[in-house]
Amino acid sequence: MIPRYVKGMLLLCLAGAAFRPVYARAPIPAVWQQSNINIKGKVKDINGNPLPGVTILVKDTKKGTTSDEKGNFSLNDVKKDAVLVFQYIGFDPLEVKVEGRTSISTVLKENQKTLDEYVVVGYGTQKKVTKTGAVSSVKGAELQQSPNVNISNSLVGRIPGIIAVNNSGEPGYDGSRIFIRGRSTLGNSAPLTVIDGFPRDGFERMNPNDIESVSILKDAAAAIYGSRAANGVILVTTKRGKGGKPSLSYGYNQSFVTPTRLPKMADAPTYAQLVNEILKYGGDKPRFTDEQIKKFGDGSDPWLYPNTNWYDAVIKNISLQNRHDLSLSGGTEKMAYYVSLGSLFQDGIYKNSATNYKQQNVRANLDATVNENIRLRFDLAGRLENRNFPPRSAGSIFRSLMRGRPTENAIWPNGLPGPDIEYGDNPVVTSTNDIGYTNDKNYVVNGNLAAVINIPWVQGLFVDGAFAYDQNFNFVKSWVKPWTLYTLDPNKPGHQLNAASRGVSAPELSENYRSYRQATVNFKVNYVRSFGKHNLSSFIAFEQATFDGDTLNANRRYFISDKLDQLSAGGDKEKNNYGSGFSFARRNYFGRISYNYKETYLFDFNARYDGTQNFPRDRRFGFFPGASAGWVLSNENFWKKSIRALDYFKIRASWGQMGNDQIPSFQYLSTYGFSSGGVMLGGDLNKGIYQLRSPNEAITWEVANNYDIGIEAKLLGDKLTFEGDYFYTRRSNILVSRSQSMPAYTGMTLPQENLGRVENKGFEIVVAHKNDIRKFHYEIIGTVTHAENKILFWDEVPGVPEWQKSTGKMIDAPLYYKAIGIYKTQDEVDKSAHISGARAGDVIFADIDNNGKIDDLDRVRINRTQDPTWIFGLTFIAKFKNFDFTMLWQGATGASQYLHTESGLIGNFPEAYVKDRWTETNTNASWPRVNDRDREYWVSRQNSFWFWNTNYVRLKTLDLGYNLPAKVCKRIALQNLRVYVSGQNLLTIDKVKIFDPEAPQGSGQFYPQTKIYNVGLNLTF
């Protein structure tokens, strides 16, 4: 067997583990004999695998040998004080002093550059030069540069093909929605996440310091995951132990967090004037006099005429976030280990915040070599996610902030909280623990046990098996109690305040307990062999997984005291409890064949026969194949002779058929529910049962046919690299409902059917340049991703005008009236087609069908959604002496969001909405006249005036570090010490200005995205 392919086989089994050289020394003889000695020995890698073909030389002589297929070697007539030099392709060379020993065993360390030449794929690894699929990866070290506590926010811009939108910065719920190459289905578009070989949730909450790499499977390479792979696959590989003495690492960072952007609201004098204008438009008398408006502005009477900034009253300037990480790694030739502990804290942005997120995590990855043919791996990871909130949601709190009238006190001058906006909502109080608490604790345990067994009598044959068990416990406790707000008593002099209880009349408690369990077992038979210039890697496998869960809920009211937050202290009246459970299973058979000739002609075929209980018994299994091929033209003689500018050039193409079974279960059966009423029998209410829906016995998975063509090139050695892909996906069998309706009196709905078809196409480009100028090293990496989908069919309602059809448009393309300006005068209104009651200062709607009137048929399907179609990333990396610098710019275009606030007499306006509004004296305004909530047609009828272009460019990550010189570290018994400053979302360039461009569509009532300033250190003993 050719040595480099043995190395490839080992990496396939171990998923790119890194190694450090160690060797076992035999005792040195007390008295050396004068004659030369004969030496026998063995060469292994850190996991105990024998390394055949290793060159062993006696230093400064011509004497040498090579190790056999079992790693054994022998040398005769060697001096006792000789030095042996071990050399092996892909491994660091090693010198070992003989010191009179006749038996020497040594362990070689995999060369890190060689490790970088491999990429993790489904159920194994591949050399990058031989990969034929669209697979991109990022190292864990790059993710660590971002001070984000949520990993999903660190991927976009770094990996081509990733499209992500972050709608919130709320601690515990601050993750991004991730799409791989955009959306291709009308249903669930979330990718499958695989952690250390097993499909699992919780990727975003992993400790980034535990991650070795993240790979993204985007084309036929994902077909190995069958009916779950249509939306792409995210593969996460955690760190493993390295050989050598124990290495202890500690990392700490302290972050200072602030919102990226909060809307600037109108001040009290402006709002008072707006209220008068609204009343005037409605034919009512003004509420505020000129003198009162003046008092709001001059601050002469803060009790009666305040000028309140509700955001300043509730949001603090800086919130804190910190992380501690401790890890220990090392090993011998028989055992390698990686153990880590981590803790993080993330505070909310409210003053006296009840909102925060705490997490503790632990991980232990162990590798053991039982003998030269048996290796074991044991992984155990645990995580406690502790989310704390007030009983009022973030949406409720920010709704109150948006609606807070600046003419009313949030906090009275004496420090007591002001009155509520409605329903007891004063965010000064409802954002704190004064109204109770919600505590959400999520306990996660993931365990793996795996074995790899070489079959010694068949070269290249080995088997491996693994068992994984995941347990999740979730306990949510929500305690709500009355709170006190204060109103000014108009009948008493001296600013007397009246206290009043708000919210619930008596304390209430609800508790929710959920338990989820997942067990997965797989078994593989692998064959990896080289026959001269022919290289083969293959396996066949079986896998089965079961999922079970239980829930239990209970609640009580009428507690006698708000000091007793236990269910047993609640009243018996109106108490309740209920529960549910589920069970789910999958079974799969799958395999892969990878072949290449001279690493020039490349071919991969993988397939999965996948079964899921979501479908009827006779339709439960499906076959999902994937094939890809590549040609490294730069290895050809004609290329080497005639095209010298390109050092490396490869073309590749793939086709894969994948599925998507992420649908509600048991749609092929008739399902039933309990009615709210029933029949009285013997004084007891017996609930009735009714059918919820008609069954669909033909239901099956979505089918995605993915096509990809790519090229890879290198110029000037490795100084300039290029990779580009064009992809096309056609998704069929998408579950949709027919346009016909079921009569309401039946109480049933039509089942969804596999009718829908969608296509998605686009391209990805990665260009990278790196160079060294003396001691200065720099890298520039640019990524571009474009993905745009189109609905081909989904049984649209017949008779829809062409300009309103969603068929042929993007998924979720909205239907809006087309806003074409603002009426300057009443004469313009009268001369145009308009909504009844329209007046000067209103938004003009286009008469799309030219029938002289504005109605629902004038709405237009706009081919633009809240998901971007273009993602850009530009990374700058520089190193000079002991300094290092990384800067990531990230941008997104092609998205729009519908944003209109809930403003008027009900609450305040963003300043930008009213600064250049239409008035009788400002008829050339860029904004319409002031309105009261949705009473105007151009607010109640959704239209393109409020459909914001949310293109943006961000300074996503900035990191500047300094490594203490090695000589200084050695003096203080350290291997390394790095101090750094970093930041996230430091600068945003966009056209929205009022809200963050990644704001969710709606009325601006959301927890804002965050900007992070960070300082930290990493030290290794």
From TrEMBL:
<dbReference type="InterPro" id="IPR023996">
    <property type="entry name" value="TonB-dep_OMP_SusC/RagA"/>
</dbReference>
<feature type="domain" description="TonB-dependent receptor plug">
    <location>
        <begin position="130"/>
        <end position="233"/>
    </location>
</feature>
<dbReference type="InterPro" id="IPR023997">
    <property type="entry name" value="TonB-dep_OMP_SusC/RagA_CS"/>
</dbReference>
<dbReference type="InterPro" id="IPR008969">
    <property type="entry name" value="CarboxyPept-like_regulatory"/>
</dbReference>
<dbReference type="InterPro" id="IPR039426">
    <property type="entry name" value="TonB-dep_rcpt-like"/>
</dbReference>
<dbReference type="InterPro" id="IPR037066">
    <property type="entry name" value="Plug_dom_sf"/>
</dbReference>
<protein>
    <submittedName>
        <fullName>TonB-dependent receptor</fullName>
    </submittedName>
</protein>
<dbReference type="GO" id="GO:0009279">
    <property type="term" value="C:cell outer membrane"/>
</dbReference>
<keyword id="KW-0813">Transport</keyword>
<dbReference type="Pfam" id="PF13715">
    <property type="entry name" value="CarbopepD_reg_2"/>
</dbReference>
<keyword id="KW-0998">Cell outer membrane</keyword>
<comment type="similarity">
    <text>Belongs to the TonB-dependent receptor family.</text>
</comment>
<keyword id="KW-0732">Signal</keyword>
<dbReference type="Pfam" id="PF07715">
    <property type="entry name" value="Plug"/>
</dbReference>
<dbReference type="InterPro" id="IPR012910">
    <property type="entry name" value="Plug_dom"/>
</dbReference>
<keyword id="KW-0812">Transmembrane</keyword>
<keyword id="KW-0675">Receptor</keyword>
<keyword id="KW-1134">Transmembrane beta strand</keyword>
<dbReference type="GO" id="GO:0015344">
    <property type="term" value="F:siderophore uptake transmembrane transporter activity"/>
</dbReference>
<dbReference type="GO" id="GO:0044718">
    <property type="term" value="P:siderophore transmembrane transport"/>
</dbReference>
<keyword id="KW-0472">Membrane</keyword>
<dbReference type="InterPro" id="IPR036942">
    <property type="entry name" value="Beta-barrel_TonB_sf"/>
</dbReference>
